[in-house]
Here is the input.
Amino acid sequence: MPVEPPESPPASEGPRHVALIMDGNGRWAQARGLPRTIGHREGVQALKRTVQAAPALGIRCLTVFGFSTENWRRPAEEVSDLMGLVRSYVASDLKRLEREGVRVRVLGSRAGLPADIVSIIERAEETTAHNDKFLLQVAFNYGGRADIVEAAQRHADRVLAGQATGPLDEETLGQGLSTAGGPPVDVIVRTSGEQRLSNFLLWEAAYAELVFQNVLWPDYGPKALADVVEQYRNRDRRFGGLSAAPALAAC
Ligand code: FPP
Here is the structure.
């Protein structure tokens, strides 16, 4: 028996939780004859602008895809630069995020990450754990399929240890995901014109609206995010039921 779709306010009230696939850093740099790493650095500036703009648009939670389990396939120099950006982002922004009431949560596997990155992630989560004005979730070393497999394995381990019984259901599996306890995802956005999920929030995408924007991530900011809110407000979220809007009269 599937769980009930989440209780969500009407789309006209705007999204509370926006998830972003920040795509196009490499193409942004390439178009300017710059190395890809510069594109990622500009991507961090776009992330800062976007986080700052979100609360005024009524958004209470942002989830961003910072590094996927597939990104390890990139050249070692690029991987190392992405790790370096996490170090500098936390070093430059953690105090401000804490002061502004932002809780930081990092989704994904810590296995295989450099030890200092794991400590940085733990420090960011611990320092901001008491905040409740805004939730910033960073998917890092994250893969949607792996997250589902780990949740299923966690349940199997609990059954084997005699701590859980019964068949696995949607509610129990959902509680084992790294997004457990967070608000339901209202809309998933991908920038750069590509139209796929690339292993991002596969379970959570079940009832999310999808928005694809042509802007490259380093150019992202308040205006593009406001456009997402506007598009979302005009969606008719039915969760498999019938429209709340009056049916069109027969011609
Ligand atoms: C996709 O662009 C973007 C990424 C793989 C990384 C996103 C990371 C950041 C915006 C900065 C670092 C993040 C944190 C959490 C501080 P791409 O390289 O695939 O672009 P392309 O498709 O144009 O090549």
Q: What stands out?
A: The CA atoms of residues 161 and 248 lie 56 Å apart. Strands lie at 17-21, 61-68, 102-107, 134-142, 187-190, 209-212. The mean pLDDT is 92.
